[in-house]
Amino acid sequence: MSEVMIHSSSFLLPSIPADEASAYAIVVLNQNLPRFTPLLWEHAKLRVCADGGANRIYDELPLFFPREDALLIRNRYKPDVIKGDMDSIRLDVLHFYQSLGTKVIDESHDQDTTDLDKCILFIRDSTLNQETCRLQILATGALGGRFDHEAGNLNVLYRYPDTRIILLSDDCLIQLLPKTHRHEIRIQPSLQGPHCGLIPIGAPSAKTTTTGLQWDLNDTEMRFGGLISTSNMVKGEKITVESDSDLLWTISIKKQDSTRP
Ligand SMILES: Nc1ncnc2c1ncn2[C@@H]1O[C@H](COP(=O)(O)OP(=O)(O)OP(=O)(O)O)[C@@H](O)[C@H]1O
Ligand SMILES: Cc1ncc(C[n+]2csc(CCO)c2C)c(N)n1
């Protein structure tokens, strides 16, 4: 019987638990910043921009604080690291963050891996990523743009199946559920759902079993060209998934906290 892996999106909560399992690094990609970026940034243990992602922090973060001085905001939201092939970051942005002490890692010699890939490797090798306390990685702006980039971002989940990577957009999150484990997914119902999906993108699944969904699977086969679970709905606060194949799990993110008036 395989071990249970627990997933909880506590990073979406205004105050996250300070336990080690919730510790995460953020990678900002080169797409519009999701509305919860300031919150994620503030609680991250490590803040990394993938190449042109630095332009987004520089240009768009001040827009979240229209009453405050843009320069003060830029000083406050300083990336620890900017890494990539450096063909999208603007020179003014590069010089600004270099002068604040951000570490810049130029890997323009590597044109075979994406900037997100490069950032994941940096975080995995970081001293903050301890054996006893592995950082989760949240990547903002990973979805809802150019399809080749989206596919590259999904591929990163498969390249590093042992690293907990969560791809985020304003509308949803996506993560890999490795077949090596059974999975318990804890939902924050005021912030997430109800729409969700289980997608066998890397390889077909002969048998997947779930609980907690409106359309549960029961030793069901899933494959592209046949059945895949899209437009499913979560019923409660706990979902379980067990499969003979790595699956993508996706759940919608609510526009507004539904517990607020
Ligand atoms: N439109 C998009 N949709 C999804 N992800 C994106 C998009 N644009 C960028 N990204 C992500 O942000 C990272 C950094 O983006 P950046 O534009 O710096 O990449 P790039 O390698 O210069 O792209 P390209 O040269 O192919 O336009 C990419 O590696 C990718 O993961
Ligand atoms: C078969 C193949 N297709 C595309 C690329 C191009 N490419 C892939 S990742 C990357 C870096 C983007 O920052 C670039 C240019 C390649 N090398 N090999």
From TrEMBL:
Coarse class of the protein's main subcellular location: cytoplasm
Gene Ontology BP, a term: thiamine diphosphate biosynthetic process
Keyword Disulfide bond found: no
Annotated keywords: ATP-binding, Cytoplasm, Kinase, Nucleotide-binding, Transferase
Source species, domain of life: Eukaryota
Annotated InterPro entries: Thi_PPkinase (IPR006282), Thiamin_pyrophosphokinase_euk (IPR016966), Thiamin_PyroPKinase_B1-bd (IPR007373), TPK_B1-bd_sf (IPR036371), TPK_catalytic (IPR007371), TPK_catalytic_sf (IPR036759)
GO cellular component: cytosol
Documented EC number(s): 2.7.6.2
Pathway(s) of this molecule: Cofactor biosynthesis; thiamine diphosphate biosynthesis; thiamine diphosphate from thiamine: step 1/1
Pfam families in UniProt: TPK_B1_binding, TPK_catalytic
Domain Thiamin pyrophosphokinase thiamin-binding positions: 181-247
Location(s) in or outside the cell: Cytoplasm, Cytosol
GO molecular function, one term: ATP binding
Catalytic activity entry: thiamine + ATP = thiamine diphosphate + AMP + H(+)
Major enzyme class: transferase
Entry-linked PANTHER family: THIAMIN PYROPHOSPHOKINASE (PTHR13622), THIAMIN PYROPHOSPHOKINASE 1 (PTHR13622:SF8)
Family affiliation: Belongs to the thiamine pyrophosphokinase family.
Function, as annotated: Catalyzes the phosphorylation of thiamine to thiamine pyrophosphate (TPP). TPP is an active cofactor for enzymes involved in glycolysis and energy production. Plant leaves require high levels of TPP for photosynthesis and carbohydrate metabolism.
Protein's UniProt name: Thiamine pyrophosphokinase
Species this protein is from: Brassica carinata
